[in-house]
Fold:
Amino acid sequence: MFDLLIKNGKIMDGTGNPWFFGDVAIKDSKIEKIGFIDSRLAREVINAKGFVVAPGFVDIHSHADFVLPLDEHPEILEPLVRQGVTTIVTGNCGYSTAPINPQTLELLKTYTLFLQTAELKWEWLDMKGYMDFIEKGGVAYNVVPLVSHGAIRIAIKGFEGGPAADSEKKEMARLAREAMEQGVFGLSCGLIYPPGMYSDTDELTAICKPLKDFGGVFTSHVRGSSETLLSATREIIKVGEQNGIGVEHSHLEAFGEEHWPKIDRVLNLHDEARARGVDITFDVIPYIAANTTLLGIFPPWSIEGGVSKLIERLKNKEVRNRINVDVEETVSDWPPWLPGAWPHNLARAAGWKNIIVISVGSAVNKHLEGKNLVELGEEEKKMPFDAAADLIIEEEGQVMALYIGVSGDMRGDEGLRKIISHPRASICTDAIITGRGLPHPAAYGSFPKVLGYFSRDLGLFTMEEAVRKMTSMNLQRFGVRDRGLIREGCFADITIFDEATVGERGTYFDPAHSPEGIKYVIINGIPVLQDGIYNSKLCGRVLRKQR
Structure:
């Protein structure tokens, strides 16, 4: 007897091949048989007539690391399953929960506070301890963990600025190797954030060297997506090329209208690198706005020592004025790690009116959510910079913002269309879901938007290709071969959707709406979403990379 039988589906198997009609039989968490199968051979039957049966969607770039340890994480992360996600890649952009040096743990806590829903117990010291902890508590999704350069650097150097000494690089590489031995799938960097922004290319090359022995992947939020976009892309290509490892260019984008013409050039850099044997791919957020911490608007020197030091500096009138001048006048240049340099001036790239507060830590300032920094300044009779600085002080750095102007804006998304239609573009959310404030609309609709808007409505690529971009392609990047496909012997992570209606319902300013058209979600053979009802079952698994 089969445990579950999906009947009469239009199967898009995740390879990009043309769809075909058939049934999918599941037993002991895996796909046992594909064909035309008698319903009497199964304990439970789902009739998928008129719907697409696809592999479960894979969020190659999530930030759920700090939510997964909580008992309530299935409810907090529910928006993901409602858009068809069954697997998440964690540890992105230089943010991970380990390794931990007890002497610098407070810095790590502060560094990652904007990603946290509640105070964590921090009952681990390394990636193995973290993976064991969430596995023991149970997880709602399959988890593909990465270790981060940010956590490793904090463990060795804290928030001290400047490139690492040779002895420190050696220690960082040792921690990276240790994490790989424990089963992570690669290492991520966030090079526009401290402490990643303080590192030079030699440091990145050194810390990534151990990845080759494990088939690990180097993923990177590059130095900048505006003035430094091309140099930043060349840098991660260099790190991959010198180490002979795979590279994932995280959420490839061009930030700010004057830089959108660089999209063709950055894609050419990728093509040229692959032509000479560099294994580089990229993912993309299907939106013209990104979400990250408001701390991203401040220059590197002002954040040395951590958030508490930034707040001290913002309270000093003379130092605040110097920070303000840098924000208004500094143009990013290469190399960006030298004293006084800045890899990515977000405020200059976006403009104050395109930076919108979407989440604050306290109830007192809740009314500010949804307002841009120009509106904030007008309301408080301040310049936008001062409104932002005072908010950071009041909220102790816990402010999330939406930055508009990523490969397009509210007038058009032609640049984004060019990126997302590239055959090597895979789909991610990059959503920060904490249960607070206004989330990025990607938290609710990233994958349905690709299926509905970019594929069905615009016709940029076939529905089968859309499915490939969000399933097998994302897992292949990390060497996971037994998921992401509708294939006998693969794990039964399956999303069933209505291709005629699938699409997002949220907007940038009213994002919290579940999408249309996602009918069923199955994780490891167990239905977790059926006819709009989510059961919060902990049937995910923590995956570990085999050497």
User: Anything to note?
Assistant: The chain has a mean pLDDT of 96. The domain at 65-440 is CATH 3.20.20.140 (TIM Barrel).
